[in-house]
Amino acid sequence: MKNEKVKSEKQISLFTFSLLAFFLLAWVWASWWMGDIFRVAYEQSFFASDATLMHFLLQKSFGWLWLAGRALLTLYHWPLLGGLLVTLMLTATTWSMAKLLRGDGHSPFYILHFTLSILPACAWMSWTAWTGLNLFYETEPGRTLGVLLVMFIVSAAIALIVRLIRGKAAQEQQHSEQDNRNNITLSLIPYFLSLVLSFAIPVAITHLRHPYARPVTRMQVQLLHDDWKGMVATAHDNATLSYRPLAAYYAIALVHTGHLTDALFDIRLDYDSLYLYNYSRKPDNGTNYYLVDCDYTTGLFRAATHKAMEHLTMNGPTLYSLKHLTRLALLDDAWSLARKYLSIIDKAPFESDFVSHYSAMLDNPDAVAADPEFALLRRTEPVIDSFESQHQEPTFLGYTATLTAGRTPDALMQSIMANLYSKRMPDFLMRCEPLVGSMPPRTIAEGLVTQCVKNPDILKAFPQLQMNAQIYRGFLQNVQSAMTDRPAHARELFDSYRGYYPYYYFFGNLKATRKATDKEHASSNVGVN
Amino acid sequence: MIENRPISLSTHRGHTRDGLLFVIYQLVIIITISVLTACTSKPTSVPTSFIDVQDSLCIYPDYRDVTVPANIAPLNFIVTDAEATEFVANIGELVCGATSDGKMGFDAAVWHRVLSGAKGQSLAVNVYAHRKAGWVRYPSFNISVAQEDIDPYLSYRLIEPGYELYRQLGLYQRDLTSFDEQVIYENNRVFEDDHNHCINCHTYQNYDSQRTLFHVRAAHGGTVVTNGSEAHKIAIKHDSILGAGVYPSWHPTLPLVAFSSNKTGQVFHMLHAEKIEVLDEASDLILYDAETNAVGNILRTDRMLETFPCWSPDGTRLYYCAAEMPTSIPEDHTAMDIAMRYDSLLYNIYSMPFDAATRQFGKPRIEVDAASMGRSASVPRISPDGRYLLFTLGDYGQFHIWHKSADLAIVRSDDFAASELQSSNCNLLDCEILNSPAPESYHTWSSNGRWIVFASRRDDGDFTRIYIAYFDADGHARKPFLLPQRDPEYNTLLLKSYNVPELSRNAVCISQSQLEHVVLHTEAETAQYSPISNVY
């Protein structure tokens, strides 16, 4: 009798230990593994206690639930704290389920029951991982934590009701009888396996389905802290991943670090599927994900305002759009408008730093001019008016590539790089004319030598590129065999030629290559006619 | 077992600790309640001792020295004074208090009693602030109460002001005597591709909500026409007309609607004082008969762009705007050809007589020659007594709600001759008090002609808000006031624009569910083409 009691206590200790382990693993998952994703979800959300501001949400079905989800998400302002909250709900759900299913050591099938107890938490984590950036992209950001809240409340309520129905005394008696009857084999391994599996599944899903999600959101969080070098480092650490948002935020970081002309092609730019879905639940290439950031960084403030307003229209207010609109209003000397946005952001918890920083610029053009970020971005602001629809989309590329008048040399460099990226070589060469006689930056030099065969005058204009031309010829010899099937060899050659423009020209972003080729054909047809 | 282990609290020390905790707990609750009560209680009486200060009173909305109708809802406002912890305002017997947030919310019943008793008079508003040194009183301001009321219902569309996409928007009707807002129709609250639609251009026949219409675009498209508590959806399309009806105007007595039919596009500036240009590549005028479901062209021209029709109050003339395409725009022009010359399109206001018996239109005549001034006129609205023409005057184009240069302008009907506007000192009435550096447009008259309601972006430059101004019998406009809200901060926090304010004498008598049924579950009935003969 005494032995059986000891065994049962051991089971409970095991259960307690497992629950503790679950808690710790869940905290690591929710605050570290998923921390940046939820942190960005927080930025793409908005929560305030003001009914006017939340009306757009409250009028929807389940609006209160999504509001609650958004409220919980606000704690992800600090991912450790947000992660702790998620962990507590996951652990409490698991504990409730364990009590309900007697996976806490009171059942002869305790391992099975414990596994079942973990199942809701595992299912939620797996669903969250499967959703990826659609956790907030063109969908309701409060949904994920709203569902978790329901799961937590329902499991706790059922456990409580069952406990009340069973009756505590009867339950104890039953437990005692069962404990006495069964000779349970105690083992840590099944608990351990259940635990590991419950976390391995969501981690694997994120890793396999959305490998870009963590680096991209990491870069976005670094952007929030103006950690441009950190963004570059994150992109370099994930250089073999090839996704549009990653490339976009990398380019943004390069603009800020001044390395656009020598490091743009250091990462793969081929663009695999994002498994993202738009408002209509149709596959989406994620352009809207970074459009506002890119337009803003290239100094196209009006285009950024346009896109940010559309973001606001489609998603309702989000911290992301409101913060952008605040900055853009300040850049436009629209003080009343900036004040309005700041007063709205001020209604959200934990945003006082942003509000106080930018409030100091209200009615103060000198303070706006003195802001280093604004000063940098204004260097590439347009100097002549045009309409967005006159330029190819996305505007930050289409406008920049066809730039005819720039405010500073930075604008010229951005234009040259946009053409190199788009493989619009005639436009690229035209924009390089002001560089004749000087030693162009490395990537531009590499771009120039790719055109030497078609246009030998380039080497006359840039005689210092002889060495680059020689290296280029060596490159062509080395990759000659791969030219017959470029898509098949693109990935294997990347490690050898990472950052080398001719590699990108022939093997990178092959979709852009096709476009450029089509365009060249179209031009020649015009000439023939 | 752990669960069976008794937990003993019955020690003497335990009792003491519990008692102490209970006392602390009670104290915390009492202190919290006291603090919260102290923080949230508003002063309810006018301070007996105070010092008069000359500091300028900072209130939002700026209701200082405005003229209001007696039937308007309370003009709640926010007082800002960083040093003050509480505020009091009084208008005669009407007293209102506020905590440090400065939000003054007047009692509606007392408000209406005070205003009803002060028609034609001025009421002094005193505002007091409680600073560290004690109560102070700012210089008082006046609110004048007009003799004439305003129509009690105001309809508008609420939509985000940017720019191409739409998700959730709706038509609403506000009871101006209170803060009640009724939904007339709302589109998709949740985005669904198959049901995504836009709604616009709501209008009433002669301030009466018996006959109304609004357009539905994209999914479930058509024009919803209501007659009393019945509604149906029509499709105005035919090879002989340019396209669907756009800007509408109900004939004041007949079941006729004059529409413009526009091929409209918009372009976005990359570097300009204005953000957007809304341009017509082509536009004509059409007439729709709601009884026979027939449509015909009033004006179908190639090189003239006619838009914004508006009937005179007696229904004998149709006013509209029109611009001649500059010769620099080629015959086979594209939308971009128009866009590139956006600032060369100057609209004038014309009118043409209408014979209700024969349903024939006469020869157009120019009413406001804005182009000769190098300016552009849009959205004509005739006062109910027929004496005044209210319109917007901007530097170019017709979609003035996006033009900072757009101001309201008024001319007397006896000055409607084109020659009057050809000099820089044309006979425009002085209504500068209505205008601001931001755009003003979407204006309308009250049914008694004493009130002008319009939309303006003056608050922040982007989000339109509704302003109401008194217009006296001598043709003088008074300082406009912002549409009052229960929470005066509402106008700051709302991220939507007020669009096309329309006054009516009565509430819309058709339910939202009926309209939803018509929009979502009925097919639009296509209008028949019926040519209209013009007598010129």
What's the structural blueprint in terms of helices and strands?
The complex is a heterodimer of chains A (529) and B (536).
Chain A: H1 2-33, H2 35-43, H3 51-58, H4 63-73, H5 79-101, H6 110-131, H7 143-166, H8 168-181, H9 188-209, H10 213-224, H11 228-237, H12 244-257, H13 260-263, E1 276-277, E2 283-284, H14 287-297, H15 301-315, H16 319-331, H17 335-345, H18 352-359, H19 365-370, H20 372-378, H21 395-401, H22 409-422, H23 425-432, H24 442-449, H25 457-461, H26 466-478, H27 486-497, H28 501-507, H29 510-528
Chain B: H1 12-40, E1 51-52, E2 59-60, E3 66-68, E4 77-79, E5 86-91, E6 94-98, E7 103-104, H2 108-116, E8 122-131, E9 134-137, E10 141-145, E11 153-159, E12 170-175, E13 181-186, E14 197-205, E15 208-218, E16 222-227, E17 230-235, E18 248-250, E19 256-268, E20 276-289, E21 294-299, E22 304-311, E23 317-324, H3 335-340, E24 347-355, E25 360-361, E26 365-368, E27 376-382, E28 388-394, E29 407-412, E30 440-445, E31 451-456, E32 465-470, E33 481-482, H4 490-493, E34 497-504, H5 512-521, E35 525-526, E36 528-529
Parallel strand pairs in B: 1-9, 3-10, 17-35, 21-36
Antiparallel strand pairs in B: 2-4, 4-7, 5-6, 5-8, 8-9, 8-10, 11-12, 11-34, 12-13, 14-15, 15-16, 16-17, 18-19, 19-20, 20-21, 22-23, 23-24, 24-25, 24-26, 27-28, 28-29, 30-31, 31-32, 32-33
Any overview of this molecule?
The complex is a heterodimer of chains A (529) and B (536). Chain A folds into 3 domains: 2-209, no CATH class; 213-378; 441-528, no CATH class. Chain A has a two-stranded antiparallel ribbon with strand order 1-2. Chain A is mainly α and 529 residues long. Chain A has helices at residues 2-33, 35-43, 51-58, 63-73, 79-101, 110-131, 143-166, 168-181, 188-209, 213-224, 228-237, 244-257, 260-263, 287-297, 301-315, 319-331, 335-345, 352-359, 365-370, 372-378, 395-401, 409-422, 425-432, 442-449, 457-461, 466-478, 486-497, 501-507, 510-528, and strands at residues 276-277, 283-284. In chain A, helix 1 (2-33) packs across helix 2 (35-43), helix 2 (35-43) crosses helix 5 and helix 27 (486-497) runs antiparallel to helix 28. Chain A contains 29 helices and 2 strands. Chain A is globular and about 95 Å long. Chain B folds into 2 domains: 51-145, Immunoglobulins (Immunoglobulin-like, Sandwich), CATH 2.60.40.10; 153-528, Neuraminidase. Chain B has 5 helices and 36 strands. The chains are: A mainly alpha (529), B mainly beta (536). Chain A binds chain B through residues 5, 8-9, 12, 50, 52-53, 56, 59-61, 172, 175, 279-280, 282, 300, 302-303, 305-306, 309-310, 312-314, 316-317, 334, 336-337, 339-340, 343-344, 347, 381-390, 399, and chain B through 1-4, 160-168, 189-193, 267-272, 275, 277, 336, 339, 459-463, 487, 489-490, 492-495.
